[in-house]
# Entry
Amino acid sequence: MKIDLGDVAALARGCAVLGTGGGGDVRTGALAARRAIEEYGAVPLVRPRDLAADALIVPLSGIGAPTVSHEMIHGEEEPRRIAEEIERIFGRPPDVVMSSEIGGANGVAPVAWAAQLGLPLLDADGMGRAFPEVQMVSMYVAGLPADLVIMADVAGNVVTIRPVDGLWSERLARAVCVAAGSHALMADYVLTAGRARGALIEGTVSRALAVGRATEGPAPLRALRDELGAVQLISGKLTDVERRTTGGFVRGTATIEGTGDDRGRRLTLELQNENLVAVEDGRVRAMVPDLITVVDTETAAAIQTEALRYGQRVTVLAWPCDPLWRTPEGLRTAGPRAFGYDLDYVPVEELTK
Amino acid sequence: MKIDLGDVAALARGCAVLGTGGGGDVRTGALAARRAIEEYGAVPLVRPRDLAADALIVPLSGIGAPTVSHEMIHGEEEPRRIAEEIERIFGRPPDVVMSSEIGGANGVAPVAWAAQLGLPLLDADGMGRAFPEVQMVSMYVAGLPADLVIMADVAGNVVTIRPVDGLWSERLARAVCVAAGSHALMADYVLTAGRARGALIEGTVSRALAVGRATEGPAPLRALRDELGAVQLISGKLTDVERRTTGGFVRGTATIEGTGDDRGRRLTLELQNENLVAVEDGRVRAMVPDLITVVDTETAAAIQTEALRYGQRVTVLAWPCDPLWRTPEGLRTAGPRAFGYDLDYVPVEELTK
# Structure
């Protein structure tokens, strides 16, 4: 199949849902995707199993402060410069583009990058959701060495990092990003399809498309819940949002008071770019790496952390993350303690049964 | 000729003089040089004209906050990692090591780096003195593109920057350096001997050695003055030092009141890591890029900006910079206005005749 103009809106809606409140504004990515498809044509979507073992995958993502990313349309030069650097290093250009992060803008924008490079897009990503740090990707959890990061900024600079590990990769990439004006395009874990086996979260572009399409019918919230296999944590009104932005990260809490069937209940979300923990009456009902998304009760459109406002009528959905995140290494990388919560991970299915 | 154990002290003294108060503590570089010569043997010193046109020169320097550099002995892994990255990029290892900056620790430490790599040292550098910023090198002034910077830190990370220009090179390298713990080894302007023609300041290692040796006799100050062809701006006592360290840069002023023949005179130095401007009675007597160095009146040992103390008996010497720095591009890059002084450059010979 191909991703064409008519698919972009659904893909963007789906990526917003999988972004669990973070991952940047999908509208920026959608605009870039539409423009690139108009200029270069529809983008073939290929499955990992369709690739030859030596096919070179370039996982791409925008890195930077969300507030800056919102205002920027990604240029065409950055993907090209990264592809050139890959050719210099590997002796051949990449064969396929992958989204490093399906949740948020980084799930949609790779359509534009693939179109600009004349490459297909891989139906997979490195998170199955959104996460804030460079090392929080399936390739890292699978134990692949974080041995190469390539960054390109709008000024035309290209920086290649050979970090000793994923944590250094995050630290150095972040510093380069800030120096480059708080926004850059990044290739992380460039790898062959053979090496990628078991280290990607597969089918996530198709899933985002399906999730986005689910909300096109007459009962969008129910359809979305069914498509995700999600538990509805609460439906009600946003009564309190406390949020501060420090160092490019949004932190805070949001409180929802139940209405209708949920009257008398009250759910609090802990936010760090993404919605990370949901608490009701002192009891945790869902926690990272499981997915928690706040949607508009009527339209089922996902609401980003930064767009949460007092009085909104919202529903909070939670559903299981990819099994990779539930492994010991997955939880070490992106479990509740990786975000500073003194909580042992319990799957959302158990917390809500 | 070769640089052997017996040469290190003189080289270090000479590099301190050429450092014009900056360039880091030469003791760190001297210690590294001695250790490396003990382990790997003396280091051949070769002239640019002795190199084949395609010989690959790797200009190296430590980058970072002086306070951190003082406490660190450079590791052996960093030069090796940079050489490996050069081999990856150029398809062959470097042939000769060059000091990017002869003034200060970066003039001495390349002896160690060359010894560790088993390579000769080039009798040339990119400054003929010390300067604080990455783009303030002769290769930049000569118009060579600042198209590649390779950095290696103690943790083992290697970062390659392909900047759009020298100013971006400074900005990105500085950010990586800070993220890497405020110290890294850097290769800047890796180039062939053929391309380097006219873009290096030649003979500066020999010159530093000669300058250092000049101070070994019975009348060190006079011998140093003669060797440098320097004007003695004042001899006296340090009566006021005002200095603050911000963002890894030392800024301030130092005032010397004349004694002996200079009684009644008073000279003020403007400091920014290096001694940049010397003023007497509201009249500038020497300014950057000409060299201004404060030496101990008795031993003629150079005193670093950070080691200036009330009561020291000092003599201030000034002498002409390399002609390259007096070209329009040289002055744009490292003239008084590049450091924020609203002064038109006038050569020290004219200011003091």
